[in-house]
Amino acid sequence: MKDTLERRISLVQGTAINMTDMVGIGPFVVLSIVAQIMNGPSFLYAWIAGAFLSFTDAMVWSQLGSTFPLAGGSYNFLKEGFGKKWGKLMSFLFVWQTMIQAPLVIASAAIGFSQYAAYLFPLKEWQSKTISGSVVILIVLLLYRNIETIGKISVLLWMGVLVTMFWIIGGGLFHGNFMAPILHINDGLHCNQAFAAAIGFASVKTVYSYLGYYNVCHLGGEIINPAKNIPRSMFISIAGIAVLYLMMNISVASVLPLQQIQNSKFVVSEFIQSIAGNTAARVATGLILWVAFASVFSATLGYSRIPYAAAKDGAFFRIFARLHPTKHFPHISLIVLGSVAFVFSLLFKLKDVIDAILAMRILIQFIGQAVGLMILTKRKGRDFFNWKMPLYPLPALLAISIWCFIFFSTGSKMMLGGLCVTFLGLIAFWIKEKNMSRK
Q: What residues are paired with 9 via a beta bridge?
């Protein structure tokens, strides 16, 4: 029986996995929320801000991911970056918060799936919860197979994502008023403290929609030619998704009035309905559900490798290091994360989890690994890395600064929650280390 992962994921498949994770239910749900927060045509700037942060942060991920192409992504980056003294603590804290926030991410996409399904047929609350829970179960069943087959499924799901996005964009283009939102983007705009606060709150939502550009790093042990394909797949993913998001938002805003966008629960379905009728809107809603399903598939795939990597390294419960005897994937990790996500999908509402996801991840994962990269660079030198970010260390410092701004924009309640999870992780690490010292 093999006890190592196999490198079978190509650049195309890795990019498809990234992009299907990024384009989940997020952009279709938060489009209205962002328009509400910005309260004007300037809401497009929030989507540009999200893309800028993602591109800057991807330089950190690329430098680390190309050098440490192993399953688990950030687990390895934090361990290597902070060295022997602090690396064990930081990597443990990452796995600790992953066991909570990863199921939240999976559940958020499943909840969004059931929310949009309500456009097709009225759902009572228990019916909505049944649908979201069933989505999680089906995803686990689909992922219960070898990685080569999963790569092919990802490409198939991504084709559905492209069809959906191009239909939305094409609808706006052929409607004949496509440039209007761009021409009026600065109407009523004042670059003051209120605008900075608004774009901060709005960027929390847009950044959520971009999350997933780094998914390929969690699958580093299964990527072909990782030194080149990991950075390429991330930058291709971000550039492609940024264009699609901006074009989609412009397309919707060129057809629907701003007030309708702000108040709609099914803004894209209503957009298609206004240009092509009820039947087309129902078909489009079906495609949006396809996109949401694809996102859950991709996110669950990437996250299932994190507890596996930590357990194999001896830093987490040993049972998570087990691979399936014939299909060679971390099946225990997949089942546990899927089970927790199933429970979360029944307990929470979508609006409750988006801010919590970011607040929980920013300190340890995003800011932590950027700091770790700078420490590692000082210790090893730039020549140690297989890929080097241009203008170092400016991109890393910029990413840290923006992530701090986003963290404060999640609000005091979510900030406190993120800090509490970290504090509990410190206690758990102390207990674990104390028990290890006794053996």
A: 223
307 preceded by a cis bond (ω within 30 of 0): no
- 3-state DSSP call for residue 385? coil
Quick one: which of 286, 334, 333, 343 has its CA closest to 143?
334
Q: In angstroms, rounded to a whole number, what is the distance separating the alpha carbons of residues 83 and 86? A: 6
Structural contact between residues 344 and 92, judged by C-beta atoms closer than 8 angstroms: no
Structure tokens, 244: 């699609």
Cβ 150 vs Cβ 301: under 8 Å: yes
Token pair of 432 as six digits? 């674990």
Looking from the CA of 62 toward its CB, the CA atoms found within 13 Å total 24
Q: For residue 412, what are the CA distances in angstroms to 157, 403, 406, 408, 418? A: 38, 15, 12, 7, 10
Nearest to 266 by CA among 248, 247, 255, 282: 282
Burial class for 346, CB neighbours closer than 10 Å (0-12, 13-18, 19+): middle
What is the token pair recorded at 151?
């790569």
Q: What is the pLDDT of residues 373-395, one digit of tens each?
A: 999 999 999 999 999 999 999 99
Q: Could you read off the pLDDT of 77-127 as tens digits, one per residue?
A: 999 999 988 998 998 898 888 888 888 888 888 888 888 888 898 888 889
Neighbours of 277 (CB within 10 A): 10
Structure tokens at 157: 């799901």
Structure confidence by residue, pLDDT tens digits, 115-168: 888 889 888 888 989 999 999 899 888 887 666 666 677 677 778 778 888 899
CB atoms within 10 A of CB 123: 16
